């Protein structure tokens, strides 16, 4: 996509309607030449039974922002973009507030792309570090 920041955020937020992103209250908040940021509230809806952010919700946030970034930075008129692998290292727990996911491309190949998604809390502390591999499949 060749759009300005406000248009990118508008598109990302509008296509989230009736999806997992809406269920988790994920909102895209910032975009730049090589990154996309989204935030997710940490409420009981995304907690583990002991009251901290569930790792699965964290990974859902990471894959959501990484996949959205892939759609922004690749030519989706010619390609479908799909996630093919995700890995996460959770390093800190969160009980409330917001977490922020920043997707940055590490490798932009013709077929595969590698994204780093850092999940931080409101103070900027690292919560999880994720890696997402996407593939661009030609549309026929």
Secondary structure: elements and pairs:
Layout: H1 5-14, H2 20-23, E1 27-31, E2 35-42, H3 55-73, E3 79-90, E4 97-108, E5 112-121, E6 126-138
Antiparallel strand pairs: 1-2, 2-4, 3-6, 4-5, 5-6
Principal-axis shape equals globular
Total beta-strand segments: 6
Overall pLDDT confidence:
94
Q: Would you tell me the structural class of the helices and strands?
A: alpha+beta
Describe this structure in words.
The protein is an alpha+beta fold and 140 residues long. It is built from 3 helices and 6 strands. Strands 1-2-4-5-6-3 form a 6-stranded antiparallel sheet. The longest helix is centred in the middle third of the chain and has 19 residues, at 55-73.
Give me a quick take on this structure:
By secondary structure, this protein is an alpha+beta fold.
